[in-house]
Write a structure and sequence with these properties.
Blueprint lengths: L8 E11 L7 E6 L20 E5 L13 E5 L1 E4 H9 L2 H7 L2 E5 L7 H13 L3 E6 L5 H7 L5 E5 L5 H8 L4 H13 L3 E6 L8 H11 L5 E7 L4 H9 L13 H12 L10
Parallel strand pairs: 2-6, 6-7, 7-8, 8-9, 9-10
Antiparallel strand pairs: 1-2, 1-5, 3-4
Iron/sulfur cluster (SF4) binds next to loops.
């Protein structure tokens, strides 16, 4: 997508200032629209489709029937690099004071690699710290393109069993694991993010396999287990998407503490919730 000056434009579905769970310090997080995965637990299901779309919204507490739709909501907007940059630059003073910066998240930012690169470059020129939050499902050539402009990678690792990964996310985990191994060799700092989905990703077996996989990898500076929350169920209902997971219970403090201990005992800096 290009505007008249050939500067790439992109489609985002949100931009949030003062975020504190998307990397170090106080940050501005830009949420790109479009994702190659279809995680059943996705807490931003409206981000999956790369196109701008109008969705019916429902008052899910009272009337889930489509005929009782309350209104429509447009998800996504096309934005220029300058537009996004203007928002990011508003909080430079907070980034400087807190060690924060900009985080590019989604959806999957690597699906809009040219736009992402233009944003990263613009932030780099202004010496704004840049974090990329990625599901890892992209070509290595795409990673190579953006890596010189990235200060930190927030890398999601979900399921080690490939058949389970396919079942719950719609894609194989092979490129995700391969890319993580390659990234660990580049020297870029990595925060590993593990969404803890009850009975799916938070099992003893999966966490043990993740621990075994990352043990030899360099540059994993932090492990962030992300507790399950019910936001995805609310969003599915609000937009009328089918709920693709049974109702799940959030993890207890004891369960989270066990996950934390596992990675701390391996010598990792661990931050529950990122
Ligand atoms: S990778 Fe993230 S944004 Fe994409 S479907 Fe999965 S949870 Fe949603």
């Amino acid at each position: 997508m290009c505007n008249r000056t050939m500067e790439p434009t992109g489609v985002i579905f949100d931009l949030r200032r003062y975020t504190v769970h998307d990397g170090p310090g106080i940050r501005t997080t830009v949420f790109f629209k479009g994702c190659p995965l279809r995680c059943r637990w996705c807490h931003n299901p409206e981000s999956m489709n790369p196109a701008i779309e109008t969705l019916l919204t429902f008052n899910h507490r009272r009337c889930p029937a489509p005929s009782e739709a309350e209104n429509r909501e447009t998800i996504g907007r096309e934005v220029s690099v300058d537009e996004v940059l203007r928002e990011i630059e508003k909080d430079t003073i907070f980034y400087d004071q807190s060690g924060g910066g900009a985080t590019f998240s989604g959806g999957e930012p690597l699906m809009q690699a040219d736009f992402l690169l233009a944003l990263l470059s613009a932030c780099a020129e202004r010496e704004i710290h840049r974090a990329l939050d990625t599901c890892g499902y992209a070509s290595w050539a795409t990673f190579e393109k953006i890596l010189p402009r990235v200060n930190l990678i927030l890398y999601d690792l979900k399921l080690m069993d490939d058949a389970e990964h396919l079942r719950y996310t719609g894609v194989s985990n092979t490129p995700i694991l391969n890319n993580l191994e390659k990234l660990a060799e580049t020297g870029v700092p990595i925060f590993l993010r593990i969404p803890l989905i009850p009975g799916v990703t938070d099992t003893e077996k999966n966490l043990e396999q993740i621990a075994g996989f990352i043990r030899p990898l360099k540059n994993i500076q932090r492990v962030d287990p992300l507790p399950y929350n019910l936001l995805s169920e609310d969003k599915n209902q609000r937009f009328g998407f089918p709920n693709r997971l049974e109702h799940l219970e959030v993890q207890s403090a004891e369960e989270l503490s066990r996950v934390e201990d596992r990675f701390v005992s391996m010598g990792y800096n661990v931050k529950i919730g990122g």
